[in-house]
Amino acid sequence: MIAGEPLKGAEKPVPVYISKDGLIIKQTQYNSYEKIFGVNKLAQTFSTDFGTTSITNISLYLEKSGSPEGEFIISLHTITQNNEPENTALSQTIISANSIQNGWNSFSLPTPVMSSSSYAIVVCVPNGDNSNYIKWKKQNSNVYNEGKVLNSTNFGFDWSEFENEDFSFKVYSNNRVYACKANNLNKLDFIGFAISNAETGEEVIIQVNGIVKGFNDLQVGKKYYIQDNSEININTGFYKKLAGIALNKNKISIFWSDSLEFANKEEAFEGVNDYKIMSPKITNEILSEVANPLIYNLRKLIPSETGRAFAGTQQVVHSRKQFPKNIQVNLSGTVRVKFRMKAIEDEFSVQLFTNDDGKRTFSTTSTEYVSYSYDVLVESGDTILLKWIKGSGYVCCFGLYWDVEMIPAYRILTD
Fold it and tell me: Per-residue pLDDT for 199 more than 80?
């Protein structure tokens, strides 16, 4: 994978996430500007790094002067042998020139590109004039060494270079990896640990499961959480995000394995509150690191045709009220809800809820009983119920059907 920022995983593994829109190039300084209007076109060239294969967005620091009419056009071009933009654009976005905001403006330009290659950002405002135009901020010094500023006064037929200048711009790509931070929900989609060093745009090795080596002074058996500073600790960060559990002082087992939902919720096992719980996925590699691992079964509900709980008999329903067709479950998993209903006249509708979360609406105009079945995901303590929606009718045989599946897991003693 490609690093979106410098990562020092060889020194100590770094928890990382994948960004869909990672910043890969930026030049944010400015002390002057160029005007964009009429036949004038402006361009900034740049070079992609080793890992870039696509561009998602481009941001420019712009200001509006007067009330420019018509279109603001931004496009992305390959470069000719003369280091000028090709006539044909790879991609293009058009917006109203008058909608430009003073400051950073972001433009969607999804474009496949080649790594380690040069491209040009080209902008124009064809209907602007010397009183109504867009300013593109620039720095009067060569602050970005991989590109240059170009100007055209005849719609791009000829180009000239502004030496030692660079426009203010940012280029974004996708599928870059960055260090997780527990104080930012956008940086908490943990996928594993970077275990090699890499600068921005370089390849980095990411370990997404199993045992990660290279830590110091971990506490055996303790759960480790991602921190605000991108490290891991037995205390949670601003937001709680579990990364793994320590097998010894130097090794951690990535927790989420094949059940991300399990890891996020840190399901508890009955009767083992004095133990630290591992992932339900057991591997020989992990077991070999654990002294006397104890196998334990997690109980989970699965839908079946075996009736387990029922709520009352036939009941007429004709008003907006929660009628007594509800059952509480004490285990997590998936159960099958079954019931029968018929209309007295016109359409009769009820809705299935888990607590206050509406799952599905059932409707019938039949005056004969119709059978319904629906599988619903539940957590321990949830109440499953039906609520009246409209019409009048009868409901009967409301019940839950499930079997209990034993999921093998394992635990290790805390220190």
Answer: yes
